[in-house]
TrEMBL record, chain A:
This is ABC transporter permease. InterPro entries: MetI-like, MetI-like_sf. It comes from the Bacteria. Keywords: Cell membrane, Membrane, Transmembrane, Transmembrane helix, Transport. The chain crosses the membrane at residues 12-34, 77-98, 110-130, 142-164, 185-210, 243-264. Gene3D superfamilies: MetI-like (1.10.3720.10). Residues 73-264 form the ABC transmembrane type-1 domain. It is a multi-pass membrane protein. PROSITE patterns: ABC_TM1. The keyword Isomerase does not apply. The gene is msmG. Pfam families: BPD_transp_1. Belongs to the binding-protein-dependent transport system permease family.
TrEMBL record, chain B:
One of its GO terms (cellular component) is plasma membrane. Residues 1-21 are annotated as: Disordered. It is found in: Cell membrane. Residues 89-300 form the ABC transmembrane type-1 domain. This is Sugar ABC transporter permease. It is a multi-pass membrane protein. The keyword Isomerase does not apply.
Length: 278, 311
C-alpha cells in the first residue's frame, strides 16, 4: 500500500502485535461508549465492559429529545461550515498579500503581528472578548464564526505564507502580462494552486470549530444557539445518574465527525501531515 | 524553461536588475492593501482590543459591570499572597510539564513503531489518530465514568483496596486521571506530526548504519532523533503552551475538585472572572499568566536549541 515509504526487509511481527495490543487503549473507551449506550440502566453492572443483552436502542431516542440533538447538531454544522468556508477564502488571501510583499515593512510587520498572537494565551482575552461580543450583538452563531476566522489567522497565515513562497512568481507574471489584475491573479491562478494547503487548513479549522467548547461557552448567550459540546455540558448535570442516556448522547455527539473521518481518513491524515512539514 | 532564461538574463545584465526591482516595489498594486485591511481591522478589534482592555481592567477593581476605580498594582500584589492562585499555578505547571513530556515520549515511540516494518500500518495509523477528531469535553465525560465507576469496579473484583475508590475524589491523585485524558487525546496529533518528521529522514542513512552493524536503538539515537530534532522542539513548545491553558479536560472530569485540588489557572480565571465578581482581579491573573507562558516558550526554545548545538 504505502510500499514506497516502507523500509525494505522482513515484517516485524512482534512489533505488529504490540502495536495492535496498544491500539486497544484507543478502542476500549470507544467500545465502552457503544456498549453503554445500548444497555438499560439495570444492565449496567460492574466495570461496564460486558456486551448488552438484549440490545436496547431507546437511549438514543431519549438522548435525541432531551438534548435537542437536531438543533445543536445543526448549530455546530452551520458554525463549522461557515468557519471553514470563510477561513479558506479570507485567510489565504491575506497570506497571499503578505507573502508577495514581504520586502515591504508594512506587510512584514503585519505578518509578525499575526504570528505574535500565537503566544498570547486565551484567558487574557476570554473575559473581555465575551463583553465585547455581547456589546456588538455578536453573542451568537455569527459572532462565533467570525471569531474562528479571525483567531485562526495567526496559525493559518503562517502555513499559507510558507506554502505561497514555494509557488513560482512566473505564473502570476504571465497572467499579469495577459492583462489580469491582482484580484484575478489571486482567484484564478493562486487560489487553485493552494488546494493542498486549503485541505490542511480546512481540516484543522473543521475539527477545531466542531469540537471547541470554550468559545461557545463564553460567547453564546441564547441557549438555543448551543453547539454540541456546549449542549453536552449543559445537560451533564441532568444526566448525573442516567448513564445509559448520557452515553447515547455522547455517541450522538461523536458520530458525525467520526463518520467523516472514517470516510476520508487517508485524506485527513495526509492533510495534517502536510501542515506539519511546511 | 522561462524561469531559467529569465534568471540567466537577469544575471547576465546586472545593471537592469535594480531598476526592475525598484520598479515593482514602488507600485505595489492597491489590491494588496484591500486584501489585508479587513483582516487587520477585525483582528485588531476582536483580538488586540480585548487584550488591551484586559490589561487596562487589571489595574481596576471592576467586577465586570458598573463603575470601577483604579487600584494600581493592588490586584497584582494580592495575587502573590492568594493561596488559591498559587495553588492553581502549581497544579497547572505540574500537570502541563508531566503531560508534555508523556505526550511527546509516547507519540514519538508510537510514530517510530508505525514507521517501521510492521503489518497493517495504514489501519493502525488511522486508529491511533481517532482521538484527534473527538471533542475533549465529550471524551472527558467518558473518562470520568471510566475512572469513577469502571476502574473502581475492576479493583474491587480483584480485591485491590487502593483503587476501589475513585481517584477523581482523591485530592492528591485526581490530577493523574486528567493527565491520562490529556495524553490520550493529544498523542494522536503529535503522532502524525512525528510521522511527518520521520518521512524527512533519508532511507540511505539507515541502510548505511545497518551495514555498519548499528542496532535499532543505536540507529534511533544517532540518526532518527537528531534528524527530527526540529520537530521535537516545536512539538514540545506547542504541547506545553496548550497544556498550560488546560480547561475542557478539567471541566469534564473534576470541575476543579475535589475542593480546588485540580483547579487550573484557566479555570480559575473563568470561574472568578465570570461568576466570582473578580473581573479586574482575574484579569491581573491573566496578565501574569500571559507573561508566564511567553517566558516558558522562550526558555524552552533557548534550552532546546542549545541542546541542539551541543549534541
Amino acid at each position: 500500500m504505502s510500499a514506497e515509504t516502507q523500509t525494505p526487509g522482513r515484517t516485524n511481527w512482534w512489533l505488529t502485535g504490540l502495536m495492535i495490543f496498544l491500539s486497544l487503549s484507543i478502542l476500549v473507551p470507544l467500545y465502552l461508549v457503544v456498549v453503554t449506550a445500548l444497555k438499560t440502566p439495570d444492565q449496567l453492572t460492574g466495570a461496564g465492559f460486558d456486551l448488552p443483552s438484549p440490545v436496547t436502542f431507546g437511549n438514543f431516542g431519549e438522548a435525541w429529545r432531551l438534548t435537542d440533538f437536531p438543533r445543536s447538531a445543526l448549530n455546530s454544522a452551520l458554525i463549522t461550515v461557515g468557519a471553514v468556508t470563510l477561513t479558506l477564502l479570507t485567510n489565504s488571501m491575506v497570506a497571499y498579500a503578505i507573502a508577495r510583499n514581504m520586502h515591504k515593512k508594512l506587510f512584514k510587520g503585519l505578518f509578525y503581528y499575526f504570528i505574535a498572537a500565537l503566544f498570547v494565551p486565551f484567558p487574557i482575552l476570554m473575559l473581555t472578548v465575551a463583553k465585547l461580543t455581547a456589546q456588538l450583538n455578536l453573542d451568537n452563531q455569527v459572532g462565533l464564526v467570525l471569531l474562528y476566522v479571525v483567531f485562526g489567522l495567526s496559525f493559518n497565515v503562517f502555513v499559507f505564507v510558507a506554502y505561497i513562497h514555494s509557488i513560482p512568481r512566473e505564473l502570476e507574471e504571465a497572467a499579469i502580462v495577459d492583462g489580469a489584475n491582482t484580484w484575478t491573479v489571486f482567484w484564478k491562478v493562486i487560489f487553485p494552486l493552494l488546494r493542498p494547503m486549503n485541505a490542511t487548513v480546512g481540516i484543522i479549522t473543521c475539527v477545531w470549530a466542531w469540537n471547541d467548547f470554550m468559545l461557545p461557552l463564553i460567547i453564546l448567550s441564547d441557549p438555543r444557539a448551543a453547539t454540541l459540546p456546549l449542549q453536552q455540558y449543559v445537560f451533564q448535570s441532568q444526566f448525573s445518574t442516567n448513564f445509559t442516556v448520557a452515553f447515547a448522547s455522547y455517541l450522538l455527539a461523536m458520530v458525525p465527525l467520526l463518520l467523516v473521518y472514517v470516510l476520508a481518513q487517508r485524506w485527513v491524515i495526509s492533510g495534517v501531515t502536510r501542515g506539519a512539514i511546511k | 524553461m522561462t524561469a531559467t532564461t529569465q534568471a540567466t538574463v537577469a544575471r547576465g545584465t546586472p545593471p537592469t536588475t535594480p531598476i526592475r526591482k525598484r520598479g515593482i516595489a514602488s507600485r505595489t498594486p492597491r489590491a494588496f492593501y484591500w486584501m489585508v485591511l479587513p483582516a487587520f481591522v477585525l483582528f485588531f478589534l476582536l483580538h488586540t482590543v480585548p487584550v488591551l482592555q484586559g490589561v487596562f481592567y487589571s489595574f481596576t477593581d471592576s467586577p465586570g459591570y458598573g463603575p470601577y476605580e483604579f487600584v494600581g498594582f493592588a490586584n497584582y500584589q494580592a495575587l502573590f499572597t492568594d493561596p488559591r492562585v498559587i495553588h492553581a499555578y502549581l497544579f497547572t505547571f505540574q500537570f502541563a510539564i508531566v503531560a508534555t513530556v508523556l505526550v511527546n515520549v509516547i507519540a514519538l515511540a508510537v510514530a517510530v513503531a508505525l514507521n517501521s516494518r510492521i503489518k497493517f500500518r495504514t489501519t493502525l495509523r488511522a486508529v491511533y489518530f481517532i482521538p484527534y477528531v473527538l471533542a475533549v469535553l465529550v471524551v472527558g465525560y467518558v473518562f470520568q465514568y471510566l475512572f469513577s465507576i469502571s476502574i473502581p469496579a475492576m479493583a474491587q473484583a480483584l480485591g485491590n483496596e487502593r483503587f476501589s475508590t475513585s481517584i477523581l475524589s482523591d485530592e492528591s491523585l485526581a490530577w493523574i486521571a486528567i493527565v491520562v485524558l490529556a495524553v490520550w487525546q493529544a498523542a494522536a496529533f503529535n503522532i502524525v506530526l512525528y510521522l511527518a518528521g520521520l518521512q524527512t529522514v533519508p532511507h540511505e542513512l539507515y541502510e548505511a548504519a545497518s551495514l555498519d552493524g548499528a542496532g535499532a536503538w543505536r540507529q534511533f539515537r544517532s540518526i532518527t532523533f537528531p534528524m527530527i530534532w526540529g520537530f521535537f522542539v516545536i512539538n514540545m513548545v506547542l504541547a506545553l503552551k496548550g497544556f498550560l491553558q488546560v480547561f475542557d479536560h478539567i471541566v469534564a472530569m473534576t470541575g476543579g475538585g475535589p475542593g480546588t485540588a485540580t483547579e487550573s489557572v484557566g479555570l480559575l480565571i473563568y470561574k472568578g472572572g465570570f461568576q466570582g465578581g473578580e473581573f479586574g482581579y482575574q484579569l491581573a491573573n491573566a496578565v501574569v499568566f500571559m507573561i508566564v507562558i511567553i517566558v516558558f516558550a522562550l526558555v524552552q526554545f533557548r534550552v532546546l536549541q542549545r541542546e541542539d548545538t551541543s549534541a
